[in-house]
Amino acid sequence: MLAPLSEKRWVMKDAKHTLIQSCLIGGLCLASLHLTWIVLVFLAWAQPLMDFIFKLHMLNSPFQIQAFNWEYASSLIAITFAIGALYGLIFHIIQNAFTKIDKELP
């Protein structure tokens, strides 16, 4: 629910996420970044992109992109989703702790 803070700004009031929602948000955010990388590797655009980024930073690229592998790609998505879900869990715990502290203040 949006509540007016001033004429120009709005804030989320009492926005609550369940534990599962927080874990899904964290997992999907981190996994989607790696899905983008997997697509770049699959399309063979990853190496030119890496070379370009290193060149912009005036560095020589010490990395060579390997051939695409479905097993590695699926493992990367699964592992990064799990790590993102863990960060979502940590975020949820911290958010609940601050919400309790905020409710206790006069």
Description:
With 106 residues, this protein is mostly helical. Helices cover 66% and strands 6% of the residues. The chain is built from 3 helices and 2 strands; from the N terminus they run ββααα. A two-stranded antiparallel ribbon has the order 1-2. It is elongated.
The major β-sheet equals: 2 strands, antiparallel
Unreliable stretches covering 5 or more consecutive residues: none
Secondary-structure-derived class: mainly alpha
Percent helix, as a range, is 55-70%
Q: Which series of helices and strands comes N to C? A: EEHHH
Helix count equals 3
Number of strand segments: 2
The averaged pLDDT comes out at 86
List the helices and strands and how they pair.
Layout: E1 2-4, E2 10-12, H1 19-42, H2 46-56, H3 70-104
Antiparallel strand pairs: 1-2
Name a few traits of the molecule.
106 residues, mainly alpha, two-stranded antiparallel sheet, 3 helices, elongated
What's the short version?
By secondary structure, this protein is mainly alpha-helical. The protein has helices spanning 19-42, 46-56, 70-104, and strands at 2-4, 10-12. Helix 1 (19-42) packs antiparallel against helix 3 (70-104).
